[in-house]
Amino acid sequence: MTQVLGRLRRQSIIPINLLITVGVILLILVLFPLLAGPFQTNFMAKLLLFGVLAVSLDLVWGFTGILSFAHGVFFTLGGYAMAYYLKLNLSASANTYGGTLPDFMVWNGLKELPWFIAPLQIFPIAMAAMVLVPAGFAYIIGWFIFRSKVSGVYITIITLAISSALTTFFVSQQAYTGGTNGITDVSKLSLFGLEIPFLGLYYIILAFTVFVMATAWWLTQSNFGLILRSIKENEKRISYLGYDVASYKIFIWTLSAGIAGIAGGLFVPLNRFISPVYLAVAFGTQVVIWVAVGGRGTLLGPFIAAILLGQVQNYADRVTQDWQLFVGVLLLVVVLFLPDGLMGLVPKKFRLSDATRLMGIVGTNPTSGFVQPRLFDWYTPLRSLVTTLTGFVSSGLRSPRPTQDEADRMLVGKPNANSVRRKL
Amino acid sequence: MEVISSVETFNGSKVASPVETVLSVRQVKVVFSGFQALKGVDLDVGDREIVTIIGPNGAGKSTLLDAIVGKSPVASGHVYYHGKEITNKSPYEIARMGIGRKFQNPNVYNDLTVFENLLLALKGSHGIMSSIRAKLTQAKKEKIKDVLDRVGLVDKAFTKVSSLSHGQKQWVEIGMVLAQDPTVVLLDEPTAGMTPDETHMTGEIIKSISKTHSVVVIEHDMEFVKQIAQRIVVLHQGAKLTEGTVSEVQSNPEVIEVYLGRERIDAAA
User: Fold this and answer.
1) Are residues A238 and B176, on separate chains, in Cβ contact within 8 Å?
2) Are strands B84-85 and B76-81 parallel, antiparallel or unpaired?
3) Residue A143's pLDDT band (cuts 50, 70, 90)
4) Which residues in chain B are contacts of A365 at CB distance < 8 A?
5) Which candidate from A8, A226, A368 shows the least CB-CB separation from B141?
6) Domain containing A338: what range?
7) How many CB atoms are located within 10 Å of the residue B252 CB?
8) In chain B, what's the furthest Cα-to-Cα distance?
9) Measured between CB atoms, does A234 come within 8 Å of chain B?
10) SS in 3 state form for B63-93?
């Protein structure tokens, strides 16, 4: 028993490392607009949304084991909802042909606004559509896929087909969707009659990003997250424990699509247009690459990978048009040598997923005798720092790391009771 | 209770149920693309009884358990649990009703710790919302601690299952079934790959389980069967050959012919 308690106490220092990591990232992102110019800030806001999109895919792929190429589709469906709203709220003077009818409808010969697009003029309806259209679409697909027990690579093939089919459909319905060009020249986003300044948009997106990360973390550290991981490892076994696997998959699939949809919706006021490019398999593949490169099931990994690869792309584009070749090579390297993605290179204690897993056990009940958590353990890391330093000094850099016993003796003059107990 | 009595009238089995029948299998047939894996098998499991199923490879032992838990579709026949028909229900529904299953090869979550494996298996609500809100309560910890004590894995609680030995993995899965707290525990070769000591300890675990649960065990190891067996059912080529006590079964000429006899020849060779 003492051994068990000892182990937990040592593991419980993990969240503090993680808090620092997350805190530093957050601080950089909050200060970013002050440090970078408007172009970079705008670009970073887009990358944050791509990061959220990657996290939404991580929930279904990294945690639940469902590889989807359709997350670009959910993103874009949310984007179109927002684009219609912004396009329909252009002032007549800003509209190419005057009036309220969007330009692409005019030149495709439509005389009035179609009934199914008209409600999107109203802000609350457009906002609801931004979430509900992708989530509802995902729910319908998910219901059929998961209830009929389609699994593994077949789900992936279905998502590829959905992506291709919807791209073709949106391109073909030019009068309603703007065809290949999509919906361009949209108005700026306003709230309560006030146009949201550019910086405001950045912080709205940052807040949304933090909200999604926190929700995803909270979800994956709950029992629910444990069940998702079990579905990924062996979904048959868990059904014999009394869990209805299909309903869990449908839930996370729908939720993930809703998150992707909001990300897509927020993307449009930044990007100022949306087009079938984001529906296509190529974009869906890019999302998959972010998650694979970042590290499946790590939350933070895919988020960071989306941002980093986006930045690399931005600079590489100026140097060579063939930068995608390097992303391809990177992907190959990751797939072949780093099954845990780039996050696999990061020490475990800085990983979100491992911390959450331990938090799930340690953090939830501070009063139990079975598990004794000390979440904010300042002492242990401090002690190890001091012991390492004193170790350096006293040994004249001969041995960089003292043994636990040496360290304890140095610090408290006698072997630490814990380490003795560990030996026994 | 009147439902159970209706099953008793339906009961055409030769062996009288010792206390009250918890699980009854009636003329169950399972067909795999033309091949009859089970050709109409009857089985009754009484309250807090250990039933051991033996039989040569391919006799249909595992398939019988598969049919009970809803893994293999039952072509004809019926499975009753407490008098309620559960034939061909979904595995998760049957599990929720109170039938727990341990698979032949340890079917545990290697990537999770022992504690997490048991936490997953714990009896309770299995809905999505309740799983999101679920707290690790004192009661849950005590239950897990209790299970860990029973299978002797307390000091491995926070070890990843992947680093355990084969025998320990078997215990983890037995622990999962216990954490599920089912009325009927189905164990498919719980001692496969265990050392003699581990096998003996497993036998003691099973005996202690049977004080509170009905247990069905599939086994090959006759020493182990003798250790735990109350009533033995012999399956052969998808049908029940005979059933009875250890000595009855061992002296049955048919059994010697198809099963024990061959083992003796094997042993002699």
Assistant:
1) no
2) antiparallel
3) very high
4) 135-138, 141
5) A368
6) 36-346
7) 19
8) 61
9) yes
10) HHHHHHHCCCCCCEEEEEECCEECCCCCHHH
Give the pLDDT band (50/70/90) at residue A422: very low
- Fold entry, domain B2-98+183-268: Rossmann fold (3.40.50)
Choose among A264, A192, A182, A203: nearest CA to A42.
A203
Place of tokens 């070749």: A325
Question: CA A243 to CA B193: how far, in whole Å?
Answer: 29
- Is A357 a member of any domain? no
A365 or B221: whose pLDDT is higher?
B221
- The pTM is what? 0.81
pLDDT at residue B24 greater than cutoff 70: yes
Q: Report the residue from B109, B133, B157 with minimal CB separation from A233.
A: B109
Gap from B121 CA to chain A (nearest CA, Å): 6
Same domain flag for A296 and A310: yes
Distance from C-alpha of A405 to C-alpha of A387, rounded to nearest angstrom = 11
- Residue A316: per-residue pLDDT: 81
Domain end (from A322, A346, A370): A346
Mean of pLDDT values over B195-212: 89
What ipTM does this complex have? 0.81
The pLDDT assigned to A2 comes to: 40
pLDDT of residue A45 exceeding 90, the answer is yes
- Label the pairing between strands B76-81 and B50-54: unpaired
Q: Please give the tally of structural domains in chain A.
A: 2
Residue A368 domain flag: no
pLDDT at A334 over 60: yes
